Amino acid sequence: MKKVILLVTSLLLISLTVHSQEMRSGKVKLESATSDEAGLIKVSIMYPSGEGKTFDMEYYETLHMPMVAGFLGSNLVKYTIDKGIASGAPNQTPAYVAIGKFFVKSLADYQAAIAPNRDAIRADFPKYTNIAPVILISEVVK
Amino acid sequence: MKKVILLVTSLLLISLTVHSQEMRSGKVKLESATSDEAGLIKVSIMYPSGEGKTFDMEYYETLHMPMVAGFLGSNLVKYTIDKGIASGAPNQTPAYVAIGKFFVKSLADYQAAIAPNRDAIRADFPKYTNIAPVILISEVVK
Question: Considering only CB atoms, which chain A residues are within 8 Å of B107?
Fold first, then answer.
């Protein structure tokens, strides 16, 4: 009988140990979730604000960005859309009305995917904005 | 004796059940990590490029950003750092050398936390750059 108790107790201890190790590694994963982007390439399409500038956020969010995202395939990790609401100083217009971002693994693959679709992308611009966007390619450091 | 075995076995089962539930909730957190940002406020500190402009990325990453992040407490969801590497056109300098971003839940709380520390933050600027940053406050749409 003592052997059985010993066996079951051992199993319990093993289970708890494995559990605690997995929790620890789980915690590591959760903590690194925010820095999973490090090393990725970020393509930012920034729409500067200005007199008479217009931007249809709904069209951009529901049609334009999903269309471009569709061209990128598995190279695309995620994309985000920001709406400018204020600048650093009070009563100053935000520098950008909107910013769309594609997080990709490879810049070369991004460029290769966009090149044959450039006309389709440009033809879509006037449907939601009269702003010529500024493009910034950056590397996620952290 | 049987009671002891039953008790230990029950403990083992309870432990395994709790374990599996925690693993499942851990997974849910990981899956939602990329879309958790919608609705958050993003404060972008953008450092424009230019003739004679300098920027010490290591100081920025290891000292300046962690210092500012430390002022923000639980309002801060995460922060990121990007290094500009190219523009949309070939052979054109990227518009920004670096961009730091704070993802916060409340803009008012961000401003309240920064106000009493503004002098300390500004005094740190010359230690890593001679660029006056452009600040953009945006809302994460997607």
Answer: 86
